[in-house]
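mind reviewing these tokens:
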Amino acid sequence: MDKFLYEDLDSINKFGLLKDLPEFIEKALADKIVLREYQKDALKYFITYLENDELSKNKQIHTLFHMATGSGKTVIMAGLILYLYIRGYKNFLFFVNQTNILEKTKENFLNNLSGKYLFKDLIEYLGEKVKINEVDNFMGLDKSSNDINIYFTTTQKLHMDLVTPKENSISYRDFEDKKIVFISDESHHVNSNTKKLTKDEEADKNSWEYSVMSAFARNKDHIMLEFTATADLKDKNVKAKYMDKIIYNYPLLNFRKSGYTKDFQNFATNSNLWERALMAIIMSEYRKYLFSDAHVNIKPVVLFKSQKIKESESFYDEFFKKIKNLTIGDINKLYNSEIKELDDALDYFKVKDSSFMLLINSLKDSFSEEKAIIMNGASDNTKDQQLQINSLEDKDNPIRFIFAVDMLNEGWDVLNLFDIVRLYDTRQGSGKAGKIGSYTIKEAQLIGRGARYCPFKVEETQEKYKRKYDFDLDNPNRILETMYFHSRDDSRYIAELRAALIETGMEDKEPVKLTYELKDSFKESDIYKKGYVFSNKRVLKDRSNVRELEGSKKNTLHSYTVRDAKGHINILFGDDENFLASEKDIFTKSIKFKDIDYNILLGAAESYSELKFSVLKEKYPHLKSMREFLTSDKFLGENTLEVSYSSKKINGKDIFNGLICAFNNISSYILSLKPEYEGSKTFYPKKLSEVIKNKSIYISSVDENGGLGKSQNDNPNKNYQLSLFYMDWYVFNDNYGTSEEKLFIQYFNREIKPKLEERGLKFFLVRNERIPDLAIYSFADGERFEPDFLLFVEKEKIDKNSSFQVYIEPKGEHLLEKDEWKEKFLLEIEEKHEIKNTTITANKDYIILGLPLFNEKERKNIFDKNIVKWIESV
């Protein structure tokens, strides 16, 4: 096989041929879990593989999900358990390398009081309640039970139980007559045998991998699901093993570029260890206050990382002595550190209290001994402590900082870690030129583990689970999505750490910082000083006019067959009358929901949480009662239950069971009625000077052909080059946009600027570099859209001035068809929009409009015709 399994599935995905997710998965996952697109894809890849005979034919199902730390592998595990449950699998074996990871996982899968519990409190399938049970083995389980059974163990214990069986423990017999799903987390630990490929047969048989694979081979219906972020695919034997098994590949690089991680910065100083720690807790306290200012309840956590247990214990004692005796002098000593972020934090507290006593008292309270935990070795690694450090985001968890050696390198699942303090200055190189030391790689992996994004939003329009300030680096809230690694300012160490971070995917090889600066000529203009910019809002679609069930669901036929013990022995040769007459033994009865005894109807409906009156009322605001929903012609009254049966009559229980099946489909439909959005027709004003400012952004790489990231002022490509610095109509000092955006500015300067000047109009062109307040939302479904350019035009009249705000979107040829909805929206704005009535509109007419998509090759003539027509009408 010359390519990985996931590459075949990538091809299927490109053609839009992946299988859909069964509704049961999202229905049974915890309400707080919103599946991300890559998580949905991971589940769809597996479902497509399992249900595609050409891909999985004649194979025992064995797959590996190779996914970044923090990307939510346990959510995917839960989704797969639910999917395989409806495929007939009830027994699951979960095994992992470390006991501490196991305890955390049990909490996630079993404890419905845990903040990270993965499932709904009440799981229902076909009207039956489904429980999640922990079991000690798979022997003697009730075959008629509808429950999900999970056996949790470590790889080592599983191996020992299998090679030296004991009473009531799991053994090879458990794997012979039941189909079981093996779930291996951090599965790179199981590949000891694959890596060695030893010729010593006895050594092979004593390996963990041999035991696991031997149990797996006992039944062809077993399924193996492996998960890891660190498969050693550089090892040729590991790579060969997993070529046909890696079903989904989502490395840290993809995870970070998608915006689901914190930003990372090395906070490097030449201070001593105590001062380094003090800086870290000041930055942490600064974050706490900023979160509070934004009305977000998040507690930032600090990790103090030592190399040796004695060093960790010694610094633990020193820390509390120092914090107890903290003085104003200690704080003042940190000023003028040449670290802007630290000075910003100190300035913030100085404004609140120039004596710094507020900061000192706040630090003493936040970083007191009762809010610390030490996790240095096995003696510290109790079950309660493990649960405590794995619930650091919980509101009732007091822990603010952690002292540790190597206890937290793997299996730690925390979102609110923002500072890691390296309490040592040694550099452990590999000893080989160009090779990164193993300890530095471990540090990079720890940083990657702590880089999971801590979800929050300051404004309603922001995405909660993604970075918000990549295109606004100077925003004070950028620190709320940035993690610091505090270390000594050692150039050799920092270079090696950076190389390790690049290798793991946590940092770009050549990140580029771009700065957009407003020209003085624009800042001094009346448009900038007195002008406004308008945008609409994303709002929930109004369901107040929905007065009845959707038409397609009001006259549905639901079929149900009563199961009994009756049967026939048929003669398949000749004209056996019994065989021909067997059809006559089946009777059918059809009954409308409104004609069914209401108690039976209500009892069946109550089996589904989606059919609670409070839920239905949200979907159908005019609904008066459950009786109306179940029996009225406006809702389910005209639905028909068709019951097939072979006995002389049917009873209430048969009708009840038939309704259970019917309500399963109805509840799924109600669940599918997700909140829908639209863009408001009203556009709201904000001062231009408060929205359009200087800003800095990071991009991963620069297009060397002159496109994205390259200056337009001195572009190496003559087709794009234009000295914008000297052109007052363009508000920023430069344009670093795409090639299509550069071509548009060339076109504007060449053909549109003269026409505007001929009409005596004042105008400015603004490059919208993801400025949040310039985003607009489509009227149809509230989809967010950030047009690349805004053209502001003013016309002076004798009686009343007019101000125009024009949206312009250059688009590459390959995107014209995909983004057709954007053009449709732009062309609707002029006719459909209205301006929010305020005092600012009294002396000026404000008009907002959009133009067709611009493309130099394909759409220039259409665009030119529209913009010229508009200019002539102004």
The chain is about 35% helix and 20% strand. Residues 588 and 644 are 4 Å apart (CA to CA). Residues 5-250 form a domain with the Rossmann fold fold (CATH 3.40.50.300). The chain has four domains: 5-250, 263-509, 520-538+679-873, 551-672.
